[in-house]
Amino acid sequence: MELRKAEFSDLSAITAIYKDAKEALKAQGIDQWQDGYPNEESARADIENGTSYVLADESGVFATACLAFGHEPTYDAVYGGAWQAEGEYGFLHRVAVSGTRKRSGAASRFFEELKRQAEERDVKILRGDTHQDNAAMQRTMEKNGFCRRGTILLEDGSERIAYECLLETEEKERAKPQ
């Protein structure tokens, strides 16, 4: 399994993965991503911005995500909670895995990469969000050291559960004697 930055030649594979993810969410009765987003336009923008990553193997691209650092406007306000830390942060968006590769550890691989890139940049704060009905992503985030911090609102007013991971806290936890 190879993790790499996406290229424009990956666009059709990424949009097919998004389509597959949308159908899976719909089948579970989750209204996340049921309004046309994410789509080819968002995938293209992520590639242009250098924030699109894919997981691939000999059979081709089977997972995608946006890994970014900077400012995410929807994270400016947290309702029913608060961020634990202030400062520069990294975030993960649009994590999608092909239906044929669910439960393969692909989503966790993106979280590992985000942590690796954060450490390279000396960034200690990671954030993310997910739909309140997306239990699989909630489990994945929590398994990867992210804690619930409250609720954020998307531009369209939709609520999402806000998560945060402090890398220094994670390092201290790993260093504790067992």
Automatic annotation (TrEMBL):
One MF term in GO for this entry? acyltransferase activity
Could you tell me the EC number(s) of this protein?
Answer: 2.3.1.-
Name any one Pfam family assigned in the record: Acetyltransf_1
Which UniProt keywords are given for this protein, alphabetically ordered? Answer: Acyltransferase, Transferase
Q: Does the keyword Acyltransferase apply?
A: yes
Domain of life, per lineage: Bacteria
- Does this entry carry the keyword DNA-binding? no
Question: Where would I find the N-acetyltransferase domain in this sequence?
Answer: 1-168
Q: What is this protein called?
A: GNAT family N-acetyltransferase
The organism of origin for this protein: Neglectibacter timonensis
Give the classification, highest ranks. Answer: Bacteria, Bacillati, Bacillota, Clostridia, Eubacteriales
